[in-house]
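S1.2 Input.
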Amino acid sequence: MTDGTFPVATVPPQQVLAPCETEPLRPYIEAAAEEMVLEIQRLVPEFASPPGSRFDQAMCRAVTRTSAQFVEVLAGGQVDWRSLTGLYAEVGAYEARQGRSLNGLQSAIRVVGQVACRRFIDETRRLDWSLETLGQITEALFMFLERVAGAASQGYAEATQRLATERERLRWRLRDLLIAQPPASAEAIAELARPAGWEIPRTLALVAVRPPAGRPVPVLPPSILADWHCADPYLVIPDPDGPRQEALLASLLGDCRAAIGPTVPPNAGALSLRWARRTLALSDDDQAAVGRVTRCLDNLPAVVTSMSRELLALAVAERLRPLEELPRHRRVLFARTLLEYMKCHDNAVDAAERLMVHDQTVRYRIRRLRRLLGDGMNDPGYRTELLLVLHAAVEFDLIQQDGPPPSHPESPALERGRT
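S1.3 Output.
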């Protein structure tokens, strides 16, 4: 509740009429209030309500009280400004809680002023007031309504601030609940999402973010929840596979490093965040990853193999031991060739395009590798294991090479000459 101090019209209007001169007005206060309420309901859609409803009755009481208070102001009587401005501060707060703008309330106050002016013009004729008196009454009326409107505005602003702060706290709690482990129930998420103003999506994904030092926090749309202040910042993205979501993320994150986890149900955010963070860790040394979102499932082999790096290092040493017969500086070259060849379904031409060498170079290397690795290359089970081992060896540089690289372009003939 406000303390009764307002930034506009803080000086109350002065006495205009003698107390005895206001007596003819008092019997008509209720009739004037009824006319004001009817006119408000006719002209301001937000305040239209069925006659006799609770809202209608509350509005009649407020307008009647306000009209009576203004008559007291005209007569220089005692006016409880704190109570009156407190009433309109609460009216403004109510409008904020209902999610409406302040425009409707301001329009209603203007309508009250218009009806009051019309009635005072009629009273001037009936009571034989001078035009000067009418002018003073009109001036006092607008000062009075300005103070009332100021109270409503402040009440609205304070309530809006409270609501925004409370909603933000609820959004923080909801964000934390979505990545809870063990997962929260759908009912618990729904119970918190409603007051937080967040529509529960069919699916979501978590984005792990590493912003550059000093980068300001971007303004996010209400549908995206975020924690920018934890040790490892992240975003909650609803319906990540929807149209334009990737473009939206790119525009929001700018020059951040970011990785998005797999798409999951709303109560499995912890799973998506775990894999998003693991994917992000793999891009630390990749300058091309700056300013784009790396997708976990688009980098599945690298993400999965990174989780068993020690075991894979042992497997590389065991399974690719035959490559030790090659010169040290050629082991990675041959491993990469075999990896691309197997990815291309044993198509030397396609592998050569990916490696940017001649297809005869690929064929020569594969023949050499078949002699080194034996018939296992044709065994489906062994090929699956070999593909995994080769990917780990190339991706994580698990093959030692100490010799210098060749100083001239490679060709099958040169290859034969060196071996």
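S1.4 Remarks. The CA atoms of residues 9 and 146 lie 6 Å apart.
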